[in-house]
Design a protein that fits this description.
The chain is α+β, with helices and mostly antiparallel strands and 342 residues long. Helix content is 37%, strand content 8%. The chain folds into two domains: 3-166, NADH Oxidase; 194-235 and 267-340, no CATH class. The protein is built from 16 helices and six strands. It starts with a helix and ends with a helix.
């Protein structure tokens, strides 16, 4: 490892990252083959994975890029409001990638500036990334991908990845210290509510509860996995929660900025009462997998949970939603009235 690579890695650790590695862009060779393999397993996923082929053309889209700096950030340390557990997936509650109030976000900016001050061109996309994050982390030896498709370090899967393209050829690769999944273990596959995890190391996004309740799922009434969604309004943690490698890995020792305050505005009933300005201006920037034009999904998803686990207290809220200003919400509420014989 060169002195410059050591400096970058050391700075990342000082700024709160759990791990940092650097790989050459050429290490992405083989990623396209892996994408093709996934599509071959489940052909109907072709449309979903199509956008990821952009990562096979990095040297065309970013001809200046020579290496990828890949960092691991632990989020399994924040207090999660009890009433939101099992309703909104934990990562989305403490996602610091775009939350300017979070230390995670501020540290990301500082680390990027540090690299730029070293004379490097360093670029990041704080969302879905400019590179295949899990692939890069694997190639850098920072951990493993387990049967549930999540990336794991010694802190389990309660981590997220960030990557920067830089214009210098560097390398900092570790030997992964995380042991592989037991061949006998299939807890994540057995627990998956919608059988999205049909076999180890593969999944169908169209069946994934997390996908359906966020950027997919535009026709909940006719959604094939509507009942399997259960009590999830946004996201799903099931396959991570049951994983033995995540046991005791989440430690609620810190507060995420503004989460406790925001949580007081969130319940199934309160979601149905939310005006659309609140959904667009407060909820959407926080939970950005649902775009502003689709914030009606929050209400549709809430109604679906009410139907899946009905309590009499939901009756008036579902009936009131029949008069919602959004057609999709009205249709879902009217469907729920008939389904529940309200």
């Amino acid at each position: 490892m060169t002195l410059l690579a050591e400096q970058i890695k050391s700075a990342a650790l000082e700024m709160g990252y759990e791990k940092c590695g650097i790989i050459k862009v050429s290490y992405l060779d083989g990623y396209e083959e892996k994408l093709n393999e996934r599509i071959d397993r489940i052909p109907e996923t072709k449309g979903f994975y199509q956008s990821m082929y952009r990562f096979t053309r990095i040297q065309e889209t970013h001809p200046w890029a020579k290496s990828i700096v890949i960092c691991v950030r632990r989020y399994g340390k924040y207090n999660i409001p009890k009433h939101l557990k099992g309703m909104i997936a934990k990562y989305y509650l403490v996602d610091g990638r775009k939350d300017e109030n979070s230390k995670d976000f501020q540290d990301s900016l500082k680390f990027e500036k540090y690299m730029q001050d070293l004379g490097l061109r360093a670029e990041n996309e704080r969302g879905f990334g400019l590179a295949p994050l899990r692939w890069a982390a694997l190639k850098a030896g920072l951990g493993r991908v387990r049967k549930n498709n999540f990336f794991y370090t010694e802190n389990g899967s309660w981590v997220y990845l960030e990557a920067w393209l830089i214009d210098k050829e560097l390398e900092a690769i570790e030997e992964p210290k995380v042991k592989a999944c037991s061949e006998k273990c299939g807890l994540c596959i057995k627990a998956c509510p919608s059988a999205s995890l049909s076999e180890p190391y593969t999944m169908s996004p169209m069946a994934c509860v997390s996908c359906v309740t966020t950027f997919m799922g535009r026709d909940m009434i006719n959604e094939k996995y509507r009942e399997q969604i259960g009590n999830w309004v946004y996201g799903c943690d099931v396959c991570q929660d049951v994983c033995p490698m995540n046991k005791n890995r989440w430690e609620e020792t810190e507060e995420f900025p503004n989460l406790q305050e925001l949580s007081q505005h969130i319940s199934l009933e309160k979601i149905l009462k939310m005006d659309y300005s609140f959904l667009e201006d407060v909820m959407q920037p926080k939970f950005w997998y649902i775009d502003k034009q689709s914030v009606w999904k929050w209400k549709v998803n809430a109604i679906n949970v009410m139907v899946n686990d009905y309590e009499e207290q939901y009756r008036e809220h579902i009936l009131n939603a029949c008069n919602d200003s959004n057609l999709k919400v009205r249709e879902m509420a009217e469907w729920a009235v008939k389904k529940l014989n309200l």
